[in-house]
Amino acid sequence: MSSMVIPVDPFDLVIFGGTGDLAMRKLLPALFRRDADGQIPATARILGLARTDQDTESFKAEARAALHKHVAVDELDSIALERFIERLSYLHIDVTDARAWGELVSYLNERPEHIRVYYLAVGPALFGPIAQGLAQVGLATTKARLVVEKPLGHDLASAMTLNRELSSVFNEKSIYRIDHYLGKETVQNLMALRFANALFEPLWNANRIDHVQITASESLGVGTRGSYYDTAGAIRDMVQNHLVQLLCLLAMEPPYKFDADALRDEKLKVLRSLRPITGRNVLTNTVRGQYLAHGPDAPSYLQEVGNPDSKTESYVAIKAEIDNWRWSGVPFYLRTGKKLRAQMTEIAVVFKEPAHSVFGDLETPSMPNVLSIRLQPDEGLQLVIMTKDPGPGGFRLRAIPLDMTFAEGRGSNWRMPDAYERLLMDVVRGNQTLFMRGDEVEAAWRWIDPIIEAWEASGLRPEGYDPGSRGPIAAVEMMARDGRRWREIEV
Ligand code: NAP
Asked: Which domain does 79 fall in, by range?
């Protein structure tokens, strides 16, 4: 049970790609949980849409199986489950066939007063055609909301084309570009921490902060996504969207109010202040890696994607610098990779050491204060501070984490909501605060494109790294050149 539930207005939600992985693994479980918590009004409906020729009953059976698989048993209250399943319908439509849209129009016109949400859980090549299709049959109304998710373009040019295609049909205020990292409770708590407390903001600048590390480490390889992943790589798959968004929330100036455009204006300023990494700078400010094989049962990246010549990176580390007054001289180190030591996403704000240590001759040296914001596993915040080791003998210092875990004090049946729960309800509410605006996506590509171009121009291959390791040696060296170390990748 989540804390406070405010029901949303009645809606019809159409999941284009209703039979796919995203729908079954993330969207339906999130909607079920919101329904079980009483947030979804009685008349709301959910329509799965895909080409597979099946009827509503078999779609319901598929959805029921997915919920049993992806929702914990103690959350699957049978009354709530049946009520949710009854909301579901299915249409088999090939969205590329213009003649096929009539049934969707009839379905939605049964409830003209409902808010309409079109969630495009299909490949990005279909985003433009679906938007056009909706317009042609009169479904791109003022009450409609279009939801799209990464990949939002492959580079700046394709992102601009996509933005043009969507905005030729939908107003920017009706387009919801999801980055599910922004729906995570910890990420929103980062904003509360910064802007609802007087404590941190005076420290939040180059005078007090030494550097920032943002890590998204995965323990698995590319698996079945190999053919897509090899065209993208870690920089497009993770950095351009998730890591850069986290960097923006950390680095932005306080918005004048907690409002979608005020917040997004501030994020955009950060994106525009990112120092370009071009030419030979890629050799010093970035590192690329590819995981190696580990025995016959653990194939290398190249074997998994079936492309022995691939130069696509399964690991990337970037030293990003923000050219503005607040952050001048404070590096933001970003790293993400597959087949690393552990599954972990963390933002670490590493503060400067005290100007002078009065404990200079102690055996246990002082360590910098670190604010660690964990996105997974165990979402929460920790502030590492130095304390005196208790006991009468001597005076030793000890680094102690002050745990600010959110579940604390919430009762035993509280659970951390999934990001999609929050984001889906925000779409229905018409709140775009946690969604990316088109100009943000383009600004992020404007910073990413030259890095990829410089990699290509260098002709160099990514460095191999052992599966289960911390990544390429060159990434450790990049930090060492700056007199710093990466934080441990651990759960
Ligand atoms: P998926 O499992 O391949 O599902 C694609 C869905 O689209 C299926 O339901 C498919 O059903 C339907 N579809 C394909 N062509 C269609 C057409 N012409 N007309 C109507 N329906 C069509 O893919 P996914 O993993 O769910 O991902 C969907 C999108 O979300 C992708 O762009 C992906 O990059 C993005 N995404 C996914 C995740 C995730 O966790 N899976 C996370 C972030 C972003 P039929 O074959 O029956 O038509």
From this structure: 11-149
116 touches 11 (CB < 8 A)? yes
For the Cβ of 97 lying below 6 angstroms from any atom of ligand 1, the answer is no
- Give yes or no: residues 368 and 475 share one domain: yes
Amino acid (1-letter code) at residue 466: D
338 is in an annotated binding site: yes
What's the gap in Å between 18 CA and the centre of ligand 1?
A: 8
Nearest-angstrom CA–CA distance, 35 and 31? 6
pLDDT of residue 471: 97
Name the domain boundary from 105, 124, 149.
149
Any domain includes 315: yes
Quick one: 385 and 449 in the same domain? yes
Q: Evaluate: CB of 124 within 6 angstroms of ligand 1.
A: yes
What tens digit of pLDDT does each residue of 352-376 get? Answer: 998 887 876 666 667 899 999 999 8
| Closest to 255 measured CA to CA, from 438, 435, 433 | 433
**What pLDDT digit, counting tens, does each position of 47-78 carry?**
999 999 999 999 999 999 999 999 999 999 99
Task: Assess whether 145 and 195 both reside in one domain.
Answer: no
SS3 state of residue 26: helix
Tell me if 20 CB under 6 Å of ligand 1: yes
